[in-house]
User: Fold this.
Amino acid sequence: MTTAYRTTFLERIERTPKAKSYRFARPEGLTFAAGQYMLLDLGDRLLHPLSLSNGPHETGFIEFTKRMTGSPFCERLESLARGEEVGVKGPAGRFVHAPSGRTLVMVAGGIGITPLRSILADLANGKERAGSIILLYGNVNRDDIPFREELENIVLPDYRLVHVLSDTAGMEKAVYKGFINAGVISREVPQCTHADYMISGPPGMVEAIKKELASLNVAENRIRTDIFLGYD
Ligand SMILES: Cc1cc2nc3c(=O)[nH]c(=O)nc-3n(C[C@H](O)[C@H](O)[C@H](O)COP(=O)(O)OP(=O)(O)OC[C@H]3O[C@@H](n4cnc5c(N)ncnc54)[C@H](O)[C@@H]3O)c2cc1C
Assistant:
């Protein structure tokens, strides 16, 4: 059952020139699993599902990270004053960590990183045993990578981040130029048909990655997706 809560706006944090995090007071009684989303209701029918980008252990707040598009929803987010009340509903969604003992390949397109950032933060917090994790992270360029420094420095027993960028200027290691495709996956994921995949991003990106995985004979039941409807 989803529950509706009232909460207050705390702060905004610029992650990149095109992505901002918005933190709200954590409503009393709200618990969530890393990877879930909530409906953020800013009034006047400005309502969107947004993944929680913080880990459940960060108890003082809940955080959403939005790609800024200039939409009325974004304008309303930008106008929020500290202490202003908004509604949230949820949590919902099954895009959560499900340990299997196999390598977990996380594939994120841009702002699709939000549920995966929550899961990685949760695993780094150490409540659950993290197995082998590879994050394939696709973005436009170095300045456009939400949570870049944090994800590059996250401490987990067996974790690797591979950037895939349209423009690789200013990047040093573990970087591919272009898009995440079968070539990148087969080079970076040992025994890629035996891994589990969590793909998160805009619909077109998720579909494209699924096709690449099909071309590598990865079984569909090894793939879970979080599709950010509302983006091309
Ligand atoms: C489970 C889930 C989690 C998401 N998590 C995030 C997140 O963490 N960060 C983030 O930036 N975005 C996330 N999104 C996408 C987000 O909900 C918005 O749809 C998207 O950000 C576009 O909103 P906008 O205000 O920028 O543009 P808008 O102008 O509001 O929308 C752009 C276009 O998409 C259409 N549209 C908007 N929302 C939807 C929808 N839900 N279904 C179908 N069509 C729609 C609109 O009618 C419009 O034509 C998530 C979506 C889903 C379903």
Summary: Residues 18 and 68 are 5 Å apart (CA to CA). The mean pLDDT is 95. The two ends are 30 Å apart (CA to CA). The helical segments are 72-79, 113-124, 148-153, 182-188, 203-215.
